[in-house]
Design a protein that fits this description.
The structure holds two protein chains of two kinds. Chain A is built from 20 helices and 23 strands. By secondary structure, chain A is an alpha+beta fold. A six-stranded antiparallel sheet of chain A has the order 9-14-10-13-12-11. In chain B, the strands form four sheets. Chain B has an eight-stranded mixed sheet, sandwiched between helices. The chains are: A alpha+beta, B alpha/beta.
Chain lengths: 630, 319
């Protein structure tokens, strides 16, 4: 048993897939460079209006609505109905067709691994042995149709005993058609001969390589159609009744092949295709979008399509890449002109120039907080070519997920934090596929935040407190104070084997005294007596208003510590390593107890003793306070 | 939070009132009878702080409730906080620390036993929340922390709404009490309501209690004494206003004997140091720890605790 999925008016479907309201309208797709722009595809409603394939743009404009089309039509009802009768003209979008074809392949490969990618609008599926999994052909057809509808397309589906019969049926009959074995000739008989020649041409074009071969096969197709029309052969049944030998003597091997196909007797092995490994959705906007709110609607559509594709393949995404093509600005043009001048002596084919790149401070940080803003300028050194700056953002997710709403919220927060800075004309979203997250939860495990909600929460927190100020503190192997790195927060999965709930009685009694770090360290005036600190006073009164002044009641120290002395030499040698961020340090630390005024709730006003860590920078001789014991 | 309906027999009412209620209940029907019954909160589940003395005093930190730990600088607030966080991460709970003054020390946390992989540290940013002009204008006033406090409240809201955290700590220990008092009570009430249906411990570290009745447990900490290397000579300075330290043999200094003893006398608010004739090298007497006193100001378990209810505990330096 073979099945064929055929998408009628595929270029129209590819456009309507992202704009559902177009299904209610007559749509014609234009292709070609002006002034040779012609209608290359149209839907049934456009045909009813009187539009035809091959019309010029001017001819098509007679039937068309010249005002920009919106999904949420705000015009009055009369105007709405008047506009509703007109066709919508759209430029052909190869990106959308590629995305639609990839979505179709995803659906087919999710159904069966044996798929032939016959044409952008036609797929053949080998369903041998799948009846035990999916049930009867009727159930299979319903399942397949619902999956195709989920990815936003309308298809013809046909089931037959051989792939060619299935393909002819799908291309000839609307909806779902199931032909029982042995009845192919009877059911196919009513189809016009044009359908047979179309499929024959597809097969010939697949075999042929190059434009010359394509043109030859097209000529053959026209000759054959002409001959058959002169004979009065207009449908499959008439062709099937012609004698085999006579047809072979007049049309050659092609004639015999055509007759066999018309009888529904074709039998061949499918040329299997691999499932698409790239998950990308793109949308070209008619009018540039300036606000993030408006952009969110487009992003939502693309993300929904992307998630549907991922779900169809039982996958999730662990990384999202957003690319926005921006409207060219004067500054970009000037920059590009300068670059062209610089590059004019060095001709290059690929002239993608990276203009701005915010680099992470270290490799580890770059891994944790992935990119960073890229604005690239696409275009060649031809002076007449329009410059198209590209804005890129990447979202690295801690766990693989497949929720379009979560993705949309994350992208919105990302774009709010890093706005593109110019109107957007084109959008690409690419997902890096990953196996879906599998977590076996236990009844007795402690609760943990949901990964999706946590990711949104973290993005929102970053918007409040700033980038890289929320996460995990990871200690570094150094004796220097403040040697830690902020990493992305991704809590580890609870391990039931490690789960223990200590009570206060089994905890070790020697609990540590904690430090509260003063960031940054405050400068101190320290009076010395016998070389030891005797009294302290904060030099500048900070808004924190922590009063640190008075006689030192007790002190311990000093303890000397130093390190990273080698980084100075490394810098001189030009060895730029990660340690260049921190310079050498050499200091003497003391712990001091200072009396400070306080209030005791139970005993009224009293004096408290506060413990601080102060240090003297041996390079400058200045005193600082950098922590308090608490 | 689940509630327990108290049966009529457990509530002592006058005879005529009981008759009246029975009459009204029978006339209104079963579906309205619950409105006339006294609702009482179930006792919250508690989690240990990891400090035996405090756990014995407070029965632990209540889940689904707001707990305040107040005290001045060097009163052990951070030690208790780290201990509670360490206990929570040992239970494999995910915790969050909203650090208003960016004073969290990851090294201390690691020594305390906190699994840093399970702790979300949110460092509020004074610089990001106000322009230079605004900061200069309000530099020396209680409004200077308005931006930071706004960040703290926003982040806490987000964390509580996100859910799934075993413990959320708001560390405002370095924010002046005057500024913290400016937080409207409705914010604390909102937090209390947000945390009620969850199993989260909401812990607030500050200088003075500010959440009023929204807090289920309020703990006041005070420093009692510095612990020197020889415990026999330690005295609580807050009561006797005297500090004594000795310097026995440590790994960093040789033994100096009883002659090498320092005595610091504290007079009023300003300390005065009196040194013995044999001045020892100061690093010979490193700080061993501090002793603190905890008092329960308010508790869910006992609505009006006696003022004397308290406990002493000690935190030691990690030598």
């Amino acid at each position: 048993m073979f099945a064929c999925i055929y998408i009628p008016d595929f270029p129209v479907e590819a456009i309507a897939r992202g704009e559902a309201f177009l299904r209610e309208r007559a749509v014609a797709i234009l292709d070609g460079k002006p002034p040779l722009t012609r209608v290359m595809a149209l839907n049934e409603k456009a045909r009813v209006l009187g539009m035809e394939l091959g019309m010029t743009k001017l001819e098509a404009a007679v039937f068309a609505d010249t005002e920009p089309t919106r999904g949420d039509d705000e015009s009055s009802s009369e105007e709405h109905s008047a506009r509703f009768d007109l066709a919508v003209l759209r430029q052909r979008s190869t990106e959308r067709e590629t995305s639609a074809h990839a979505a179709l392949l995803d659906v087919a490969h999710a159904f069966t691994p044996r798929v032939e990618d016959t044409a952008p609008d036609t797929l053949l599926l080998d369903l041998t042995g799948l009846d035990r999994l999916y049930g009867t052909p009727g159930k299979m057809a319903g399942d397949l149709m619902s999956r195709i509808t989920a990815v936003g397309m309308e298809a013809n589906i046909a089931f037959a005993a051989n792939p060619d019969a299935a393909m002819h049926t799908a291309r000839g009959f609307n909806g779902t058609t199931i032909i029982p074995a042995g009845q192919e000739q009877k059911r196919l008989g009513v189809l016009p001969i044009q359908a047979l020649l179309d499929t024959f041409e597809i097969a010939a074009q697949k075999k042929a390589a190059g434009k010359a071969s394509e043109r030859r096969s097209q000529q053959l197709h026209e000759q054959m159609l002409d001959t058959l029309e002169r004979w009065g052969v207009r449908d499959f049944r008439t062709l099937a009744l012609l004698p085999d030998h006579a047809l072979a003597s007049r049309l050659g091997e092609a004639g015999v092949q055509l007759r066999r196909l018309a009888r529904g007797e074709g039998n061949r092995t499918l040329v299997l295709s691999a499932p698409p490994s790239r998950f990308e959705e793109a949308m070209e906007l008619e009018c540039a979008v300036e606000t993030i709110e408006s952009l969110s609607f487009m992003l939502n559509r693309l993300l929904e399509q992307l998630c549907t594709r991922l779900e169809a393949r039982a996958l999730a995404a662990h990384e999202l890449h957003l690319r926005l093509q921006l409207e060219p600005r004067v500054a970009d043009e000037e920059t590009a002109t300068e670059q062209q001048l610089v590059r004019s002596s060095v001709p290059s084919l690929n002239t993608t120039v990276q203009k701005v790149e915010a680099r992470a401070s270290s490799a580890a940080e770059a891994q944790a907080f992935r990119p960073a803003k890229h604005v690239t300028i696409n275009g060649d050194s031809c002076p007449g070519r329009e410059i198209k700056p590209i804005f890129e953002r990447a979202l690295c997710l801690p766990v693989s997920m497949c929720d379009s709403k979560v993705f949309l919220k994350l992208l919105q927060l990302e774009l709010t934090a890093h706005p593109p800075g110019a109107p957007v004309t084109k959008i690409w979203i690419t997902a890096e596929p990953a196996p879906p997250r599998s977590a076996q939860r236990g009844l007795f495990l402690p609760i943990t935040p949901e990964a999706e909600r946590l990711e949104i929460t973290l993005a929102r927190i970053n918007a409040v407190v700033g980038e890289r100020r929320a996460g995990i503190a990871r200690l570094l192997d150094s004796h220097q104070q403040e040697r830690f790195r902020m990493d992305r927060f991704a809590p580890a999965v609870s391990n039931p084997q490690k789960h223990d709930s200590p009570t206060s009685w089994d905890v070790n009694s020697s609990l540590p005294l904690a430090l509260r770090i003063w960031r940054p360290a405050r400068r101190l005036q320290v009076s010395l007596s016998d070389g030891q600190p005797n009294a302290v006073l904060l030099e500048t009164r900070q808004p924190e208003q922590i009063l640190l002044q008075g006689k030192i009641l007790w002190s311990a120290g000093p303890w000397r510590s130093s390190g990273d002395w080698w980084t100075e030499n490394a810098k001189q040698n030009g060895d730029r390593t990660a340690t260049e961020q921190s310079g050498p340090w050499d200091r003497e630390e003391c712990d001091i107890a200072v009396a400070c005024a306080g209030k005791n709730n139970t005993r009224g006003e009293c004096s408290n003793v506060a413990l601080y860590r102060i240090y003297r920078d041996l390079a400058t001789g200045d005193w600082f306070v950098d922590a308090s014991y608490d | 939070m689940s509630s327990v309906a108290v049966t009529p027999s457990t509530v002592s009412l006058p005879r005529c009132a009981q008759d009246l209620r029975a009459h009204i209940e029978s006339s209104l029907g079963e579906h309205l009878s619950s409105t006339l019954r006294l609702q009482e909160r179930a006792a919250p589940t508690t989690v240990p702080t990891g400090i035996a003395a405090i756990d014995a005093l407070t029965q632990g930190l209540p889940r689904a409730a707001l707990t305040e730990i107040a005290g001045p600088t060097s009163s052990g607030r951070t030690g208790v906080m780290l201990s509670a966080l360490a206990a929570a991460t040992r239970r494999q709970e995910v915790c969050a620390l909203v650090d208003a003054s960016d004073s969290f020390d990851p090294c201390s946390a690691a020594v305390a036993g906190i699994d840093l992989e399970r702790l979300l540290w949110v460092r509020c940013n004074q610089a990001a929340c106000a322009t230079k002009r605004t900061r200069a204008k309000y530099q020396n006033s209680a409004f200077a922390f308005a931006g930071v406090l706004e960040q703290v409240l926003k982040v806490t809201d987000l964390l509580l709404q996100s859910g799934g955290f075993g413990m959320v700590v708001l560390d405002m220990g370095d924010i002046p009490a005057e500024s913290v008092r400016r937080i409207p009570l409705t914010s604390w009430y909102r937090f209390r309501r947000a945390v009620e249906p969850t199993a989260t411990v909401l812990l607030l570290i500050e200088q003075e209690p500010s959440a009023k009745t929204c807090a289920s447990l309020v703990l006041q900490l005070q420093p009692e004494a510095l612990c020197a290397s020889n415990p026999s000579v330690e005295r609580p300075f807050s009561t006797q206003q005297e500090l004594q330290f000795s310097s026995p043999a440590t790994k960093s200094a040789p033994a100096l004997g009883s002659k090498n003893r320092l005595t610091y006398l504290q007079q009023g608010n300003v300390g005065r140091a009196v040194r013995s004739e044999n001045y020892p090298p100061p690093h010979a007497m490193p700080l061993r720890g501090m002793r603190f006193r905890a008092e329960v100001v308010r508790s869910w378990a006992n609505r009006k605790p006696p003022q004397s209810a308290g406990a002493n505990f000690e935190l030691r330096t990690a030598l």
